[in-house]
Structures are given as structure tokens and as C-alpha cells.
Amino acid sequence: MTTAATPSDKGSFRVVKAHVRTRIESGAWGPETVLPGEVELAATFGCARATVSRAMRELAEEGIVERRRKAGTRVRAVPLREARFSIPIVRDQIAATGNPYRYRLVAREVLAAAGRLGQRLGLEPGAEVLRLTCLHSAGPAPWQVEDRWISLAALPQAAGADFTRHAPTEWLIAAVPYSQVEVSFLAATCDARTGPLLAMNAGEPVFVAERTTWWQGRAITHVRLTHARGYRMTTRY
Amino acid sequence: MTTAATPSDKGSFRVVKAHVRTRIESGAWGPETVLPGEVELAATFGCARATVSRAMRELAEEGIVERRRKAGTRVRAVPLREARFSIPIVRDQIAATGNPYRYRLVAREVLAAAGRLGQRLGLEPGAEVLRLTCLHSAGPAPWQVEDRWISLAALPQAAGADFTRHAPTEWLIAAVPYSQVEVSFLAATCDARTGPLLAMNAGEPVFVAERTTWWQGRAITHVRLTHARGYRMTTRY
DNA sequence: GAGTGGTCTAGACCACCCT
DNA sequence: GGGTGGTCTAGACCACTCA
Predict the structure, then answer these.
(1) What was the pLDDT predicted at B121?
(2) pLDDT at B3
(3) Among candidate residues B236, B66, B67, B211, the one with its CA nearest the CA of residue A87
(4) Within 10 Å of residue A25's Cβ, how many Cβ atoms?
(5) Which of B84, B183, B210, B211 to mutate against chain A (most A CBs within 10 Å)?
(6) DSSP string, A63-121
(7) What is the distance between the alpha carbons of residues B127 and B221, in angstroms, rounded to a whole number?
(8) Backbone phi, then psi, for A61, in 5-degree steps?
(9) Global pTM?
(10) Alpha helices in A112-189, H assignment, sequence order
């Protein structure tokens, strides 16, 4: 028995996981250390190998540990760090601030796809696109401008939808619930279009999220979300 | 048997998972649909309940499905969307562009913690802090300015470390490998300090990441990373 | 109360890959 | 070749929560 684990509790993959994690975080098992095998740990903790297996699998998913057959499980030298951001529905995000959520459709037009946007949506030149500009506010304070393009080739029923009362996001979630998404975050300069809506001056820095959505391999919609002054996206991990 | 699944393959939680996912994404099992129970699915797929269980657990973790005892498993109305960003080491990030990674220590000073920063690090007024300003470049092109504060109360050995050749990140990863982290992303205006380093004009918008790191409940370091023009953080999910 | 998911066990076989 | 993780099974008991 090379390990000096304290099998204070029996069973439960959570117990095993917590023990091992503590040991690593405290430095007792430093980077590159090869951990005892599953059978040995199972004996140490007095549980089945499957239980240890699940604990270790989860630690591996969290990037703390790295596993390979035959080589065994070792503590990662550079922990694989991953931040997770839940992608909130604007409405919920604003509601969480305690302010009432307000929505307004600012502009709506149908136009022909062209240039970069057409490429982004994988459209043939001239294909029709529905463009919507919306404002989401927290009470009286503007929160986010949504500038959205929807491919009418992919989603013709969007042409008839009423976006004056409800945000396109909510309609889209119902229409295309499970899709593939690419998001980017970047800093930009507030332009003359969004500035007035956000009560900001042209030239101020704004935090922008861009999102393109595909469904079954076909581009559905692209959106540019420009946030009001002072916006931060925060997470812990 | 209410399901008409096609148990084309036997066993394997991956097969079960893929089948169920396809069914949901295609719309055959729409939002709010209650899926068949584990025992039924196990019979359908001709495998053990544990196998189905694992498949469903993973789908739940991915936010596609929601499970409750007694109530069963149902398709989420609003898919719980989570974007994951791997937190890259700058060096790797730059190396991936094909350019050589270059590092330069711009400034180093020891000062007394004060104001917002002291609070952020949970320091008593007057506690010593090591402040480092570094520049990371992709070949000749500046990439990111790192403005870092390290609590000397928490990590006294940082005072003696040599940061002229290697970035503090690498030293810190070795010193405090597993820690708790809070990150924020925001848009800011390029200031007079970082502007020249990034070959940017004061007033240009910059993408900023701020990160605070704790170890065993104690704040260790805080860093502000200011990215050069055109930086985007992108992910798919 | 009863039905669902949540977890554990003991045993088995397999796939990979280091030595 | 052999040792490690990866997965599956069959059965069991438990915990939660809905009706």
C-alpha cells in the first residue's frame, strides 16, 4: 500500500473524488505524480472499482488529472482550465438585476444577403434575409441592442412572425430549439446606430457578442449583441 | 412499448446517447416531452439500465435534458446552453498562430496595496504587493499586455523570482497549480500606459480579461490582460 | 405510497499502449 | 506481454418527489 489515504468514509464516488482532489490541491500529490491504480484506490477506500472509476473520470473531465491506459492516472502539470459561461436569456439576465425587463422592436426590414454577412450565413448572393434591430432594457436603462439577421431561405416562417411584442430569441428557441452555435466576444467602438439606443456616445468602447446558429448543417441566424456601458461577463471556475 | 427506437446497435452508452440526441434534435421528441424511463429504454436498446443511465446523465449534463426522480426525464424547453472556453496559456495561443512567442518584462515594482485592488486581494491596507507589467508578442506584433499584482503576504517567494525571462503565469502555475479563479471579460478604452505597448492609440477599444486567483481561500494574484486590436474570443457549442 | 432516477457492487471482458 | 483504464452487466437498495 503506497498510499496513506484516510478512508474515513466508505463508498460514494463523491467521497473518493473529494479525497483525491484535496490531496492534489494541497500539494501532497504534486504535478506529474502518478496516482495509485483503480484497484488499489478501491481497496484503500473500501469500495468497488466502478466507484473509483467514476470519481477519477470526473476529475479527468475537470482537467485536474489525465488518464491513459497502461500509463495510469497522473496529476496534470498544467491544469486544463476551462471556464464555463451559461448563455443567459437576456430576459432572465435583466430580471436577475431586479429591474423589469422591457423589449422594443426598433427596426425590421427584408433585404438581400450580401458581402460578409451572406458568407457568414452561407447564402447565395441575393437570398432574402430578415433584419431585425431590437432593444432590451432593464427598466428605463438600455441594456443591449440586438442586431439580428435571419435567413428566410432556411426559415421562411420568420417572415410572418410578429416581433413587435416578443424578442426573436424566444421565437427562435421555439422554432429551432437544438442547434449548433458559434459565439465570439470582442470589443468594438459604439457606432452611430447603436449609440443613441444605448444612451452612449459614438466612440465609446462596447462589449459585443456575435453568435451564429446552424441547424442540421444549415445557417439559420446571425446576431450581434452590443452591450451598454459597464457590461462585464463574469464566471468562476 | 411507446417508443419506436431502432436498436440498430446493442450496448454502448454512446449509441444510446446518440440515438436519443438525434431524436431530440430532429424534433421527434419536442420540448417538454417526457422520455421513456430507464428500464424501458434499456429494454428497447437491449442493454443494462446502468448503460442507459450513463447516456442520460451525460445528456443532462449537456443541458439537453432534465431529470427528476419520480417525474422522469424530459426534454428541456429552453436548452441550458453553456459555452466553454479553454483558458489558454498565452504562449500556446500565440504559438498556434504560427508566430514565435516573445515575452518582455516592462516594469516591476513593490508597492503597498491600496483602494480597490487591496480589497480585491483581501489585503490589509499597507500590505506589500508585487506589480508586474509584461508584454506578450506574436513575433514583432504585440498581442497582450499583462498587468499583474501578486500578494507578497500570500506568496513571499514571488519577491525573489526572476520574471525577466519567463512570464509570471508560468512561475505561478508551478507555485500554485490548483486554485480557484474568477474571470471577467469587458470592453475598455486603451489608456496611455498600455497604448504604446500595443501600438494602439489612446481611446481605441480594447478587449480586457481580468482574473483573480485564490488558493485555499486566500487571494494570491490579480491580473488585467489587455488585448491588441482585433482580438476575439471564440467558441462553439 | 409508489415510481422514477441515483448510486453501489462484484464480476467480467476488452482496448490500448508502455516496456 | 501484461498492466492499466474503459465499459458493460445484473442485481440491489436508496432517495426523492409526484400524485
Answers:
(1) 81
(2) 38
(3) B236
(4) 17
(5) B183
(6) TSEEEETTTEEEE-SS---EEEEE---HHHHHHTTTSPEEEEEEEEEEEE--HHHHHHT
(7) 13
(8) -65, -30
(9) 0.85
(10) 115-120, 168-175
CA distance B182 to chain A (A): 4
Per the structure block, which three cell numbers stand in for A136?
432590451
- Are the CB atoms for A228 and A136 separated by under 8 Å? no
- Look up residue B151 and give its amino acid: S
What is the rounded distance in angstroms from the CA atom of residue A165 to the CA atom of residue A102? 10
Residue with cell 426534454: B75
Query: pLDDT at residue A167 above 60?
Result: yes
CA distance linking residue B200 with residue A189, whole number of Å = 14
Question: Does A162 reach chain B within 8 Å, measured CB to CB?
Answer: no
Alpha helices in A111-221 (DSSP H): 115-120, 168-175, 194-198
Q: What is the mean pLDDT of each run of 10 residues along chain B (237 residues)?
A: 41 90 90 94 94 96 94 90 80 89 95 82 85 95 95 92 92 84 93 92 93 90 95 89
Residues B93, B136: Cα–Cα separation, whole Å: 11
- Grid cell of B203 as nine digits: 481611446
Q: Is B32 left (phi over 0), alpha (psi -120 to 50) or beta?
A: left
Please state the φ and ψ torsions of residue B199, each to the nearest 5 degrees.
60, 40
pLDDT of residue A141: 94
3-state secondary structure of B32: coil
Cβ atoms within 10 Å, residue B120: 15
Determine contact: A208 vs chain B, CB below 8 A: yes
Contact B173 A231 (CB under 8 A): no
> Would you say residue A76 has pLDDT above 70?
yes
Q: In what order do the strands lie in the sheet with A101-112?
A: A101-112, A128-138, A141-151, A218-227, A205-215, A180-189, B232-236
Q: What whole-number distance in Å separates Cα of residue A18 and Cα of residue A24?
A: 10
Is the four-CA dihedral A138, A141, A145, A150 of positive or negative sign?
Answer: positive
A124 or B52, which is more confident? B52
